[in-house]
Amino acid sequence: MSFRSLEVTEISPEQLELIRQMEALGHTAVEENLDSVYSERATSVRNYTDALRKSLESPYFGLEDSSLQEKFATLVHDVLSSTRIQDAKKAMDPLSQEDLCLLMKYVYYCLSRPRIYNCSALLSWHEKIVETAGVGCISRVLADKRAL
């Protein structure tokens, strides 16, 4: 008998459908989506809330092409770096609990590559995410089997 009420290794039907759509479209559609997010972010540099929400809109888990994973991580890192840490709370207010956990997952992904990404800014964001989402967010991210 299991003590868990939620199986963390199970993929939801929505996520499975997204994976199937992504496989059907191929990597070109993923890159086009990434390009559109970059262009929208460039037009609204000061609108960090929309930029953050847009960068977390389409999480792509388990991509075989590591260059795409790096591009998405760079996009999220650019949004986090361009947002002042004083405005972090306001930027995270409209995000759901799942979005905050995904943001934390990107923070951990970027922290694991200190030669590429600015770790001091990421640690500040880590602190703000924990303040907003709670300590349980760390447990959910570490228990999630899906890798970026």
Automatic annotation (TrEMBL):
Locations listed in the record: Cytoplasm, Cytoskeleton
Gene Ontology terms describing biological process: Arp2/3 complex-mediated actin nucleation; regulation of actin filament polymerization
Superkingdom of the source species: Eukaryota
Major localization listed first in the record, in broad terms: cytoplasm
GO CC annotation terms, alphabetical: Arp2/3 protein complex
Pfam families: P16-Arc
Keyword Cytoplasm: yes
Keyword set, alphabetical order: Cytoplasm, Cytoskeleton
Keyword DNA repair found: no
PANTHER family for this protein: ARP2/3 COMPLEX 16 KD SUBUNIT P16-ARC
Described purpose of this protein according to its UniProt entry: Functions as component of the Arp2/3 complex which is involved in regulation of actin polymerization and together with an activating nucleation-promoting factor (NPF) mediates the formation of branched actin networks. Arp2/3 complex plays a critical role in the control of cell morphogenesis via the modulation of cell polarity development.
Family: Belongs to the ARPC5 family.
Protein name as annotated: Actin-related protein 2/3 complex subunit 5
Organism: Smittium megazygosporum
